[in-house]
């Protein structure tokens, strides 16, 4: 994609979900040792590890694209950032309306993102 883009937009519009799922019956059939290993390296521990890896990959890709193809970097601030946020807000509004307890879930996500950004200087 870097070969054809003319602009590189850097906009914090949300988060990238990552899931690894397992059949509950299969999990329960595992040995206690296997379940303990899965429990130890999943959940928050997995999220932190994956998040660091994902962020590093994004940063490396951006650096590579910027250095090789030299697109214009666009980091909207102020009114432009608000306009972009407003333009995509229909997705959140629709999701909230279509899901039981959608507003509470959405608010929890926003709070988690704000907490993460504050802790990481973003």
Walk me through this protein's architecture.
With 122 residues, this protein is mainly α. Helix content is 66%, strand content 5%. The chain contains 5 helices and 2 strands. The chain has helices at 24-29, 32-41, 44-69, 78-98, 102-119, and strands spanning 7-9, 72-74. A two-stranded parallel sheet has the order 1-2. Helix 4 (78-98) packs antiparallel against helix 5. The mean pLDDT is 90.
Keywords summarizing the entry:
single chain; 122 residues; mainly alpha; two-stranded parallel ribbon; 5 helices; extended
**Count of DSSP E strands?**
2
| SSE string | EHHHEHH
Strand order in the largest sheet: 1-2
* Alpha-beta classification: mainly alpha
Uncertain segments are none
Concise synopsis of the structure shown:
By secondary structure, the chain is mostly helical. Helix content is 66%, strand content 5%.
Strand and helix layout:
Layout: E1 7-9, H1 24-29, H2 32-41, H3 44-69, E2 72-74, H4 78-98, H5 102-119
Parallel strand pairs: 1-2
Helix pairs in contact: 4-5
